[in-house]
Amino acid sequence: MKRVAIIGAGAAGCFCAALLREHAPELAVTVFEGGNRPMAKLAITGGGRCNLTNDFQGIRSLAQAYPRGERVMKRALKAFSQEDTIAWFTAHGVPCVLQEDHCWFPQSQDAMDVVRALQRAMKGADVRLKTPVISIGPAADGIYFSQRFAKNQIPSAIAMPTRNSFYVNDEEFDYVVVTTGGAPKGLPFLEDLGLELVPPVPSLFTFNINDAGLKALMGLVVEASVSLAGTAFKAQGPLLITDWGLSGPATLKLSSYAARHLAETGYTGTVLVNWLDSSEESARDALQETAARNPQKLVSSTHLLPSRLWNHLLAKAGLREDLRWAELGSKGLNRLTAVLTGDSYPLTGKSRFREEFVTAGGVALSNIQLNTLEARQYPGLYFAGEVLDIDAITGGFNLQAAWSTGYVCATSIMKSSVE
Ligand SMILES: Cc1cc2nc3c(=O)[nH]c(=O)nc-3n(C[C@H](O)[C@H](O)[C@H](O)COP(=O)(O)OP(=O)(O)OC[C@H]3O[C@@H](n4cnc5c(N)ncnc54)[C@H](O)[C@@H]3O)c2cc1C
Predict the structure, then answer these.
(1) Coil vs helix vs strand at 83
(2) Nearest Cα to Cα of residue 353 among 226, 197, 202
(3) Per-block average pLDDT, block size 10, for the chain (419 residues)?
(4) Last residue of some domain: 322, 352, 382?
(5) Domain boundary among 352, 380, 400
(6) Quick one: 107 and 179 in the same domain?
């Protein structure tokens, strides 16, 4: 009987185990989990409701949803799409509902239903809790390289396995699927394999901005676009003003797009907010039109934005509270246009967003066959989920990556095991 080791009982690992148990019961599946519970993170996703996928409406290019891993996801989604996710969970007793914001959730609004469905489907797998994997490597005819030779003394003649098997801790397996999730502290158990790793950096965080005027607007949500001065990074969506700076989907999206850049700058720079999410030209036109229609009205009382925000921006543009539209003049118009479309704030750091946090980086995609997710150098060794250098913006895209890549690994193993 061929043996499959899955390393990590998270979303990707458990989905892969479930598919193998359902469609290839002739394979013996062992799941190694370092923690004391399977799918502990999945149980708290989406604030305990589990945003298990997205309908992808409004995503023009996949890179918008997957700043890293777009090419892999294009193939993986062809193999197992968001519709497949909904169909699979529905067929496994978890009917789902689509929200207006394009996010899919279980109808019960309970992430535990997703966890329980996976647990039922992977019945028969040998799940070993509190069993962290400390090393994985190729085994050639029963010889474990890392145990026989110091890392840099492996004789090159036998550095490639003569048959596809691997040791996991001290056991031998025919196939290994690594699904250990985002690894902010690196992947020491992969050291013996000599794979290229992309250094981990956080993604999906909020911005610390120390600005008293902005803080006074705490709680306000505006549809806007945010960008980083001097870069092409830009994101659009609801922007939430908090007591520490900026949050909400637009900020989280920008943090994802600029994750690596911001790690390099130490989370400093200048954040530009376009409060109207429009070009300078259209903003100017809108202001001129308002001025023409309301010449005698106070600028402060004819607001194009929520009044608290409007007054904050008028003050930033240096406009008097008792100024009338007729008195704005071209200088005033220029200053107001500039502040409405490019209001700048110094970024002083990042905060960890409680609800959603992923790691960019991991196993470099250059190591991986894109259609099977098998390591190029080690046939029989697969990777799925966040351990790969794949991560997404919020909205169910990260879990969809876990399902799709878990599916590709399971089907690749099934095909290979009957060849
Ligand atoms: C609070 C929170 C909420 C989130 N909400 C959502 C959401 O609603 N929608 C969405 O799409 N995404 C969400 N995400 C992101 C999503 O949870 C992850 O992208 C997804 O869980 C990744 O799946 P995975 O299987 O790759 O890794 P994980 O689910 O992280 O699982 C990895 C597993 O491997 C185990 N492991 C690690 N190292 C070892 C080892 N050496 N030996 C044995 N076991 C090991 C870990 O203990 C863990 O159980 C959220 C993330 C967080 C933190």
Answers:
(1) helix
(2) 202
(3) 96 98 97 98 95 95 97 98 98 98 97 98 98 89 45 46 76 96 90 91 94 95 97 97 94 96 97 97 96 95 93 96 94 96 96 73 96 94 97 96 98 93
(4) 352
(5) 352
(6) yes
d(CA 126, CA 147): 25
CA dist 7 and 298 (Å) reads 65
Quick check: CB of 32 below 6 Å from ligand 1? yes
- Specify the DSSP class assigned to residue 326: G
β-strands 136-140, 349-352: how paired?
Answer: unpaired
CA of 180 to the centre of ligand 1 (A): 8
Question: How remote is the CA of residue 289 from the centroid of ligand 1, in Å?
Answer: 51
Are 7 and 140 members of one domain? yes
CA distance 99 to 189: 40
Structure tokens at 315: 């003050």
3-state DSSP percent of the chain in helix, strand and coil, to 5: 40, 25, 35
Q: How many domains does the structure of the chain reveal?
A: 2
Strands across the sheet containing 381-383: 126-128, 28-32, 3-7, 175-178, 381-383
DSSP 347-386: E-EEEE-SS--EEEEEE-GGGB-TTT-BBSSSTTEEE-GG
Alpha-carbon distance of 49 to 96, in angstroms, equals 11
Token duo for residue 292: 């023409």
Asked if residue 46 has its Cβ within 6 Å of ligand 1, the reply is: yes
Same domain, 180 and 62: yes
Distance 40 CA to ligand 1 centre (A): 8
Q: Do 34 and 161 sit in the same domain of this protein?
A: yes
With a 6 A CB cut-off, is 50 part of the ligand 1 pocket?
Answer: yes
Residues 152 and 252 placed together within one structural domain of the fold: no
pTM above 0.85, yes or no: yes
Identify the residue whose C-alpha is closest to ligand 1 atom 5. 45
Structure-token pair, residue 401: 């990556």
Domain with 158 in it? 3-201+356-418
The residue whose CA is least distant from atom 20 of ligand 1 is 399
Query: What is the 182 CA–ligand 1 centroid distance (Å)?
Result: 7
